DNA sequence: ACCGCCGGGTGCC
DNA sequence: ACCGCCGGGTGCC
C-alpha cells in the first residue's frame, strides 16, 4: 500500500481529494502499470488506423483538456456500471470522461487481449460540457492488425487507415518547434565561485558547471515545452494545461567526459548550494587562536560566561560570533566541543538557525555510485574539502552500516552503492534510504539505471528527494530508449510516465520524424551539461591533455600458427556458410560466436584454445545438455562481444541462456515468457524457438573461473606475445620510468603473458574482474605509486573496473586484441588519457594480419559511423546488421 | 390508436 | 443537450 501511495505521487501532481467520484488510485495504477510493464514497445508497433469516437460524461469530472491535447485511455474493468469501461484521462491523470459505451465494449476486447494499444487526441477540447469527440489511434504488432481491424469493423467501428491523424500530430510538432529555443535561454556560460569550504580551486569549466547546477537547483523557470498562457501553464507538446505552475526538475544530467572533474564539481555543489543558494553550514575545526580572538568585539557571549581565571574553554559554552567572512556577514553560533585536543568548534551558520523546519528536514545529499568508484568519492572528499572543515560524510556500506534514519539524515553526505540500495529495497519497509527525504540525490555513472526492468532502477526511482542529479560520461549508450529511465528519475513531467514519452518522443524519433528528434534534442539540452575533453571555454581547451597517438601494429603469424589458423577458419567458414544458407544463423548464434572466438584466440595464443575446444558430444541427458549450455553461456560472456540482451537492448545482467542458446537478462526474458504465455507458448525473441522459464539455465554460483595456469615449463610464446615483448623491452631501454597498460579481453591471455614478463624481469600487477574491491584498490595504488620499485606494467582485463578508474601512471597502452565495441577500447584508453596525465599517451593496437581481427576492425569502424548517426537503428536492423557482420567476418 | 405526433423529463460508464 | 431517447398524453382539419 505504501508503494501505491508513493507511485500516485510520482505519477503527477494529482490532487487525491478534489473529486470524490474519481477512482484516482485505480486509474493511476493502471497508467503506471503501463509505464512500468514491458508493453509492446513503441518502436515495434505499427499504426492500424484511427477512428473518431466520443468521450461522454464530461460533466462528472474535473479533468479539462485543450484543443489538440493528448489523452490517455485506461481500462476500468472494475467499473460498477460497465466492466468494459474505458476512461479518458489527461496527462496529470485527472479523469476527463469515458468512452461511449458501445465503442468502449469493442475497445475493451482489443485492449484486454493486448491486440492493440489505443491512444487518443481530442481535436476540439472540452468546449461542450457533456461530450466531445476524440481521435483514437490503434497501435500494435503487425500480426494483429487484420484481427483488430476486422473485429472493430464487425462492431461497426471501421478504422480509417488513410492518414488524417498525422495532421493532428504534425500540427502539434510544428507548434512545439516554435518554442524550440525557449529552454536554452538559460545561460550555461556564467561562472560561480565555490564556497570557501572547497579547498581545491575550480577550473573555469568547473565553475561554469557549478553555476549551471546551482541555477538548476534554485531557479524556478518553466520546464521545457511549458509556457504561460494567461492564467494557465500550457505544454506545447501534449497541449496539456494546468492552473498550477508545473514543477521544475531540480537537477539534471552532468554528462561531461570523464576526467573533467564531475566529482569535484559535485562536491563543490554540495558545499556551495544548501538552502536558498547559501553554502552548507559545516563544522569548522579551528584552533583557539584562529577561531576567536578572545577580546574581539565580534564575539558575543550568549551563554555560560567562561571563567577567565581558569582555562577559558574548559567547559562547553556557546558564543554568538559575527564574522565578515564568506563575502557576507554571517552570524555564527560557536559551540565548544571539549573532546578534541585541537579545540573543535562547531559553527552553525545563520541560515540553519533561521531556516524553517521544513528546510531543515532535508540536509543530506545521497550519493549512489558503483562499488568500483566508492573509494574514489571518499578520496575526493578528503582531497577537495578544505582541511579546516569537518564535513560529515558517511559511507553506507558493509554489514555494520548504521541504518538509523535519524543518524543518516543528520549527515551532510551519505555515500552508498547501487547494490546496497537495491538490497535494502528488496525489503522496502525497512530500507532507511527509502524513508528519508533527501536534499539531493546524485547518481554516479547514472546510466546504470537505464534498464527500467532492473531491480536497481526501481530502487533508485523510489527514493524521495528535492533535487536529483545524474552524473554520466555516456548518458545514451544504445538508443533513445536509454533516456527514458533518466528522465523518469529526474521526474521530468510528463515524460516520467512511459506513455507520454513513447508518444511524444520515442515513437516520432524511431519513425524518423525530424521534429521528434528536434524535441528530443531540446529536451536533452535543457537538462544536460556536456563538455568533452576537446571542448573549449572562451576559445581555450577545458583541460590540457597531453597528445594521444594511436597506432596499429600488424602482427604476422608464424608458419605453424598460420597453418593452424587457416584450418580452423576453413572449418568454421563451412559451418557458418551452411547456417547462412539455411537461414539459421541466429538460431545457432552461440556456435557462430564459438567459431569466431576460436579464431580470435588463435590470433593471440594457441594455449587459449585448449579449454574451449572441449566440446562435449551430442549430449542426450538433461545434465549433459545443461553442462553444454553453461559452457556456451560462459563462452558468450567471455567472448567480450559485449553481448546485449535483445529484450532491453542493454548489456546482459543476471545472464541466463535458453535451450536455443540465446542469452538474455533473467528478468527480461522472464517478463517475455510470462507475457506471451497468456495466449500462446512463449518463443525466443531471437529465433522463435519455444522457451520455458524452467528451462532457463544460469551460471552456477560456485562457478569460479579456475585458472588452469599454464605451468612455466610448458610455456611457449606466440607471434603476438613476441610483438608485445619487443615493444616493452624497447621502451624499458628508452625510459625505465614509463609505465604500461597491457589490455586483453581474455584473462587467460593475461595469465599467459605473466610468463614472459617474469622471464624478462618486469615488475607488474594485474587487474581483472574477478578481484575483490579491496584487492583492486591496493593494486591501483601500487601501480599509481611513483616509487622506484613500483610496478611498470599492469595487466588489465578490458572490462575490469568499469569507468572512473584512474590509471594515469601509465602512458603506454597495448591493446592485445580488438574488441567488438570500440567504445570499450576508448574507455580503457581514457583510464590513462585523462586529467592528471603528464606524458604523451601512446596506444598500440596489435592486429594479426589477414585474420578475423582485421575484419573486426573494419566492422568497428562501421559501427562507430552508426553511433555517430545516433538514432534510428531498430531491433530488426540490429539483427540483420549482426548477420551481415558475421558474414563479413568470415568473408562470406 | 396494436398507430403517429407533441412536448416534458432526462442524460456516462 | 440548440441533441436523441424514453414514455405519457393525446388524437380530423
Automatic annotation (TrEMBL):
<keyword id="KW-0347">Helicase</keyword>
<dbReference type="InterPro" id="IPR000330">
    <property type="entry name" value="SNF2_N"/>
</dbReference>
<dbReference type="InterPro" id="IPR017907">
    <property type="entry name" value="Znf_RING_CS"/>
</dbReference>
<dbReference type="Pfam" id="PF08797">
    <property type="entry name" value="HIRAN"/>
</dbReference>
<dbReference type="InterPro" id="IPR013083">
    <property type="entry name" value="Znf_RING/FYVE/PHD"/>
</dbReference>
<dbReference type="GO" id="GO:0005634">
    <property type="term" value="C:nucleus"/>
</dbReference>
<dbReference type="GO" id="GO:0005524">
    <property type="term" value="F:ATP binding"/>
</dbReference>
<dbReference type="InterPro" id="IPR027417">
    <property type="entry name" value="P-loop_NTPase"/>
</dbReference>
<dbReference type="InterPro" id="IPR038718">
    <property type="entry name" value="SNF2-like_sf"/>
</dbReference>
<protein>
    <submittedName>
        <fullName>Helicase like transcription factor</fullName>
    </submittedName>
</protein>
<dbReference type="GO" id="GO:0004386">
    <property type="term" value="F:helicase activity"/>
</dbReference>
<keyword id="KW-0863">Zinc-finger</keyword>
<feature type="domain" description="Helicase C-terminal">
    <location>
        <begin position="732"/>
        <end position="875"/>
    </location>
</feature>
<keyword id="KW-0067">ATP-binding</keyword>
<dbReference type="InterPro" id="IPR001650">
    <property type="entry name" value="Helicase_C-like"/>
</dbReference>
<dbReference type="Pfam" id="PF00271">
    <property type="entry name" value="Helicase_C"/>
</dbReference>
<keyword id="KW-0539">Nucleus</keyword>
<dbReference type="GO" id="GO:0008270">
    <property type="term" value="F:zinc ion binding"/>
</dbReference>
<keyword id="KW-0378">Hydrolase</keyword>
<dbReference type="InterPro" id="IPR014905">
    <property type="entry name" value="HIRAN"/>
</dbReference>
<keyword id="KW-0547">Nucleotide-binding</keyword>
<feature type="domain" description="Helicase ATP-binding">
    <location>
        <begin position="243"/>
        <end position="493"/>
    </location>
</feature>
<dbReference type="GO" id="GO:0016818">
    <property type="term" value="F:hydrolase activity, acting on acid anhydrides, in phosphorus-containing anhydrides"/>
</dbReference>
<dbReference type="GO" id="GO:0003676">
    <property type="term" value="F:nucleic acid binding"/>
</dbReference>
<keyword id="KW-0479">Metal-binding</keyword>
<dbReference type="InterPro" id="IPR014001">
    <property type="entry name" value="Helicase_ATP-bd"/>
</dbReference>
<dbReference type="InterPro" id="IPR001841">
    <property type="entry name" value="Znf_RING"/>
</dbReference>
<dbReference type="GO" id="GO:0008094">
    <property type="term" value="F:ATP-dependent activity, acting on DNA"/>
</dbReference>
<dbReference type="Pfam" id="PF13920">
    <property type="entry name" value="zf-C3HC4_3"/>
</dbReference>
<feature type="domain" description="RING-type">
    <location>
        <begin position="645"/>
        <end position="688"/>
    </location>
</feature>
<keyword id="KW-0862">Zinc</keyword>
<dbReference type="GO" id="GO:0006281">
    <property type="term" value="P:DNA repair"/>
</dbReference>
<dbReference type="InterPro" id="IPR050628">
    <property type="entry name" value="SNF2_RAD54_helicase_TF"/>
</dbReference>
<dbReference type="InterPro" id="IPR049730">
    <property type="entry name" value="SNF2/RAD54-like_C"/>
</dbReference>
<dbReference type="Pfam" id="PF00176">
    <property type="entry name" value="SNF2-rel_dom"/>
</dbReference>
Amino acid at each position: 500500500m505504501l508503494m501505491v501511495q508513493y507511485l500516485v505521487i510520482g505519477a503527477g501532481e494529482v490532487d487525491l481529494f478534489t473529486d470524490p467520484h474519481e477512482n484516482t488510485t485505480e486509474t493511476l495504477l493502471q497508467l503506471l502499470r503501463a509505464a512500468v510493464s514491458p508493453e509492446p514497445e513503441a518502436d515495434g508497433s505499427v499504426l492500424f488506423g484511427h477512428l473518431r469516437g466520443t468521450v461522454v460524461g464530461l460533466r462528472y469530472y474535473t479533468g479539462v483538456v485543450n484543443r489538440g491535447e493528448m489523452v490517455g485511455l485506461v481500462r476500468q474493468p472494475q467499473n460498477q456500471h460497465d466492466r468494459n469501461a474505458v476512461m479518458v484521462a489527461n496527462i496529470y491523470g485527472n479523469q476527463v470522461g469515458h468512452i461511449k459505451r458501445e465503442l468502449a465494449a469493442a475497445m475493451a476486447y482489443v485492449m484486454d487481449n493486448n491486440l492493440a494499444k489505443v491512444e487518443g487526441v481530442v481535436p476540439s477540447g472540452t468546449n461542450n460540457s457533456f461530450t466531445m469527440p476524440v481521435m483514437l489511434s490503434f497501435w500494435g504488432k503487425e500480426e494483429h492488425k487484420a484481427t483488430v481491424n476486422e473485429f472493430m469493423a464487425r462492431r461497426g467501428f471501421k478504422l480509417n487507415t488513410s492518414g488524417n491523424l498525422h495532421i493532428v500530430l504534425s500540427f502539434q510538432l510544428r507548434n512545439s518547434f516554435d518554442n524550440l529555443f525557449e529552454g536554452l535561454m538559460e545561460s550555461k556560460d556564467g561562472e560561480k565561485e565555490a564556497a570557501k569550504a572547497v579547498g581545491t580551486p575550480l577550473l573555469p569549466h568547473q565553475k561554469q558547471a557549478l553555476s549551471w547546477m546551482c541555477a538548476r537547483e534554485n531557479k524556478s523557470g518553466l520546464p521545457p515545452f511549458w509556457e504561460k498562457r494567461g492564467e494557465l501553464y500550457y505544454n506545447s507538446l501534449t497541449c496539456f494545461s494546468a492552473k498550477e505552475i508545473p514543477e521544475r526538475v531540480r537537477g539534471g544530467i552532468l554528462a561531461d567526459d570523464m576526467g573533467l572533474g564531475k566529482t569535484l564539481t559535485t562536491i563543490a555543489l554540495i558545499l556551495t548550494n544548501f538552502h536558498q543558494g547559501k553554502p552548507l553550514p559545516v563544522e569548522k575545526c579551528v584552533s583557539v587562536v584562529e577561531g576567536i580572538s578572545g577580546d574581539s568585539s565580534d564575539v558575543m557571549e550568549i551563554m555560560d560566561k567562561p571563567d577567565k581565571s581558569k582555562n577559558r574553554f574548559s567547559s562547553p559554552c556557546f558564543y554568538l560570533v559575527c564574522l565578515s567572512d564568506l563575502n557576507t556577514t554571517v552570524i555564527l553560533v560557536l559551540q565548544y566541543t571539549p573532546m578534541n585536543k585541537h579545540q573543535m568548534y562547531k559553527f552553525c551558520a545563520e541560515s540553519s538557525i533561521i531556516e524553517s523546519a521544513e528546510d531543515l528536514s532535508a540536509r543530506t545529499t545521497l550519493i549512489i555510485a558503483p562499488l568500483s568508484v566508492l573509494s574514489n568519492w571518499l578520496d575526493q572528499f578528503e582531497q577537495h574539502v578544505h582541511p579546516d572543515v569537518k564535513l560529515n560524510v558517511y559511507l553506507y556500506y558493509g554489514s555494520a552500516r548504521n541504518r538509523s534514519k535519524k543518524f543518516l539524515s543528520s549527515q551532510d553526505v551519505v555515500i552508498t552503492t547501487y547494490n546496497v540500495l537495491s538490497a535494502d529495497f528488496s525489503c522496502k519497509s525497512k530500507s532507511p534510504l527509502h524513508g528519508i527525504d533527501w536534499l539531493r540525490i546524485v547518481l554516479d555513472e547514472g546510466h546504470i539505471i537505464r534498464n527500467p526492468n532492473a531491480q536497481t532502477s526501481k530502487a533508485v526511482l523510489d527514493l524521495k528527494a528535492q533535487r536529483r542529479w545524474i552524473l554520466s560520461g555516456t548518458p545514451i549508450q544504445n538508443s533513445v530508449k536509454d533516456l527514458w529511465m533518466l528522465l523518469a528519475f529526474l521526474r521530468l513531467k510528463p515524460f516520467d510516465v512511459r506513455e507520454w514519452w513513447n508518444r511524444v518522443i520515442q515513437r516520432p524519433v524511431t519513425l524518423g520524424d525530424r521534429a521528434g528528434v528536434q524535441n528530443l534534442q531540446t529536451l536533452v539540452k535543457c537538462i544536460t551539461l556536456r563538455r568533452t575533453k576537446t571542448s573549449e571555454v572562451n576559445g581555450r581547451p577545458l583541460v590540457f591533455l597531453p597528445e594521444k597517438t594511436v597506432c596499429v601494429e600488424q602482427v604476422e603469424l608464424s608458419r605453424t600458427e598460420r597453418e593452424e589458423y587457416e584450418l580452423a577458419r576453413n572449418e568454421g567458414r563451412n559451418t557458418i556458410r551452411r547456417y547462412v544458407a539455411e537461414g539459421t544463423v541466429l538460431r545457432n548464434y552461440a556456435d557462430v560466436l564459438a567459431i569466431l572466438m576460436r579464431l580470435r584466440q588463435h590470433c593471440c595464443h594457441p594455449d587459449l584454445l585448449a579449454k574451449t575446444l572441449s566440446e562435449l558430444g551430442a549430449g542426450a541427458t538433461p545434465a549433459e545438455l545443461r553442462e553444454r549450455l553453461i559452457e556456451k553461456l560462459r563462452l558468450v560472456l567471455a567472448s567480450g562481444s559485449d553481448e546485449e540482451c535483445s529484450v532491453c537492448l542493454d548489456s546482459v545482467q543476471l545472464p541466463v541462456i535458453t535451450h536455443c542458446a540465446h542469452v538474455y537478462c533473467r528478468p527480461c526474458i522472464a517478463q517475455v515468457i510470462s507475457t506471451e504465455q497468456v495466449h500462446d507458448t512463449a518463443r525466443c525473441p531471437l529465433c522463435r524457438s519455444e522457451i520455458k522459464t524452467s528451462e532457463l539455465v544460469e551460471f552456477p554460483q560456485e562457478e569460479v573461473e579456475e585458472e588452469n595456469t599454464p605451468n612455466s615449463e610448458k610455456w611457449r610464446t606466440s607471434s603476438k606475445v613476441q610483438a608485445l615483448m619487443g615493444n616493452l623491452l624497447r621502451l624499458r631501454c628508452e625510459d625505465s620510468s614509463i609505465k604500461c597498460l597491457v589490455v586483453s579481453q581474455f584473462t587467460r591471455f593475461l595469465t599467459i603473458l605473466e610468463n614472459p614478463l617474469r622471464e624478462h624481469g618486469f615488475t607488474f600487477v594485474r587487474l581483472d574482474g574477478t578481484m575483490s574491491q579491496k584487492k583492486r584498490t591496493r593494486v591501483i595504488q601500487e601501480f599509481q605509486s611513483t616509487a622506484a620499485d613500483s610496478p611498470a606494467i599492469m595487466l588489465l582485463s578490458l572490462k575490469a573496473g568499469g569507468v572512473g578508474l584512474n590509471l594515469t601512471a601509465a602512458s603506454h597502452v597495448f591493446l592485445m586484441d580488438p574488441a567488438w565495441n570500440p567504445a570499450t577500447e576508448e574507455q580503457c584508453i581514457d583510464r590513462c588519457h585523462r586529467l592528471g596525465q603528464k606524458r604523451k599517451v601512446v596506444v598500440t593496437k596489435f592486429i594479426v594480419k589477414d585474420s578475423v581481427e582485421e575484419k573486426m576492425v573494419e566492422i568497428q569502424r562501421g559501427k562507430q559511423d552508426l553511433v555517430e548517426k545516433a538514432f534510428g537503428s531498430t531491433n530488426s536492423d540490429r539483427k540483420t546488421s549482426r548477420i551481415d557482420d558475421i558474414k563479413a567476418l568470415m568473408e562470406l
